[in-house]
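Everyone, carefully examine this protein record:
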Amino acid sequence: MPCGSRQPIAGDMAGSKHDFRNKWRRGREDLAFEAVSALLSPFRSRPPKKNGLLNLGFGRNRREAYVNADFFPLNLLHRLKGEEPQKVDWALDLRRPLRCDDAFFEGVYTEHVLEHLRIADTRRLLAELWRVMAPGAVIRIIVPSLEKYAAYYAGEVPHENFLKWKIRAEAMWNLNHNWGHKCCYDFELMAEVLAEAGFEDIRRCDFGEGAEPRLLLDTPQRAWESLYVEARKGGAAAAKA
């Protein structure tokens, strides 16, 4: 699914019973996204500069100083539903080329977004992000951790939140198919697609720990299920560091 449809954090689902029928992303929703993308993508704008840092696929984690990018906001629909319109600094479809100058951003943060893209689209997106990042800039990527989910399926309990899935296969379904998920990652696969895009210094991180303090925007409620990875775009600035 294009950037913008992110699953609720753990607190949103507290006490709820997981139900395949209620949480399955139906085909008509995908069709609506495709229609909006086809209609609005030709008119997509360029990003503002702001603090030079990109908050990509921010969902409900908007940061005022950052360039908050997400799928084209359907604000008319929000108003008809009596909801607060979504404020997006840079509206886009992540499957399409980014309308942005080379070496524009000083850093990129994206949390629980890439799993909503097919891996071929993620490869193209990471190549585009490498292009629009300045030499030496850091990208911080957070996705659901295949390693943690696989450990639970194999009989371990990486975190008590996994126990809400009484059928362990349902946890794997949640990782692979629920909430519009189209791909899953362990560190090895994430490192491979980052390296293919040209990134260097690829490393696994922990919650709240990383090379660029301004990119430590991690949502605490997601830490139990997440993989944290950082990488750097090489170049003159990196050599001076």
About this structure: The longest strand covers residues 133-144. The longest helix spans residues 27-40. The chain has a mean pLDDT of 86. DSSP finds eight helices and seven strands in the chain.
